[in-house]
Amino acid sequence: FADQMGVDAVGFRKYMDYLSATVTISPLLGLLGTVTGMIGSFSILDSGAGASAITGGVGEALIATASGLCVAIMAFIVYTIFSHRLDSI
């Protein structure tokens, strides 16, 4: 039974790398959304639109950042829980 638990732990550790990558990449994707939203805002500003037209792009940028951080935080919590459980096997 102990050998089987060791084999299962090795299999789970393989998937922990994917979870770790999710934790790392999510904020970067949020930042990418922030940059594209701000580029959109500045292009609207360049065309002579008013301040109210710019706020849509800024809001989009903030939502992208918040979404990336939320995904990263949740994935980090799951990663930490699974990591502690695997260490106890």
Structural overview:
By secondary structure, the chain is mainly α. It has one domain (2-87). Helices cover 92% and strands 0% of the residues. α1 runs antiparallel to α2 (51-87). The longest helix is centred in the first third of the chain and has 45 residues, at 2-46. The chain is rod-shaped, with a radius of gyration of 20 Å. The N and C termini lie close together (12 Å). The model has no long low-confidence stretch (mean pLDDT 85). Keywords: Cell membrane, Membrane, Protein transport, Transmembrane, Transmembrane helix, Transport. Its main location: membrane. It is found in: Cell membrane. This is Transporter, MotA/TolQ/ExbB proton channel family protein. It holds the Pfam family MotA_ExbB.
Properties at a glance:
single chain, 89 residues, MotA_ExbB_proton_chnl, mainly alpha, protein transport, ExbB/TolQ_transport
Shape: rod-shaped
| Rg calculated over all Cα atoms | 20 Å
Number of helices: 2
Oligomer: single chain
Q: How would you state the average pLDDT, rounded? A: 85
How many structurally independent domains? Answer: 1
Compute the number of strand runs: 0
**Helix proportion of residues, in percent?**
over 70%
Compute the separation of the termini in Å.
12 Å
Largest sheet: none
User: Structural class of the secondary elements?
Assistant: mainly alpha
Strand content: under 5%
Unreliable segments (pLDDT under 50, ≥5 consecutive)? none
Order of helices and strands: HH
